Amino acid sequence: MDSWQKIDGAAREDASRVLHACCGSTRWVERMLARRPFGSWDALQSAARAEWFHLAPEDWLEAFSHHPRIGDRESLARRFPSTHHLSATEQAAVAHADDDVLDALAEANERYVKRFGYIFIVCATGRTAGEMLALLRERLENPPDVEIRVAAGEQAKITELRLASAAAG
After folding, report:
1. What is the pLDDT of residues 41-79, one digit of tens each?
2. Of 20, 54, 67, 84, which is the active-site residue?
3. Stated pTM of the model
């Protein structure tokens, strides 16, 4: 069964839980629930992107707050039990990173939070820890108004991947 069928056919509470695991924005989940039934994968994806990019930055920040910091394996299980399995899979490359890279990620993550006020959001799937560190350092140079839109674009990619994996779970 495809994820759109699971979401279309589920009771509101169950569909809400699936959608919330894909994106932590309460407003996005509510808007997606209101748009059911989707009828196809393409319609679900189109709705997900449209609703996401029509949200306010405060809604984006809410979604960002549902992610652990890149490389922070300890907080994956402790703070994010409902999406731990997703984040752990998405950040799989970090598990094999050298301590030097993990230390550099922790330091750059701290600078990022101080600069922007939220954690670094990146679609980590398929990226090495070194690649994510390079992206983090590069994005530290962005002006805040640019960076929040870049982070929102990364969240949209994460949501798309999580919607796709919802069919398997």
Report:
1. 999 999 999 999 999 999 999 999 998 888 765 654 444
2. 67
3. 0.84
Per DSSP, the three-state class of 2 is coil
Both tokens of residue 36? 């059911």
Asked if 156 contacts 49 with a C-beta cutoff of 8 angstroms, the reply is yes
Residues in CB range of 123: below 8 A, 6 or more apart: 90, 154, 157, 158, 161
Tell me, what DSSP letter sits at residue 128? -
d(CA 167, CA 34): 20
Whether the CB-CB separation of 157 and 123 falls below 8 Å is answered with: yes
Q: Which residues, other chains included, contact 26 with Cβ-Cβ below 8 Å and sequence gap of 6+?
A: 20, 59, 62
Cα–Cα distance for residue pair 130/161, rounded to 1 Å: 22
Nearest to 58 by CA among 124, 118, 136: 118
Helices first, then strands: H and E counts in the chain:
10, 0
Is 96 assigned a catalytic role?
A: no
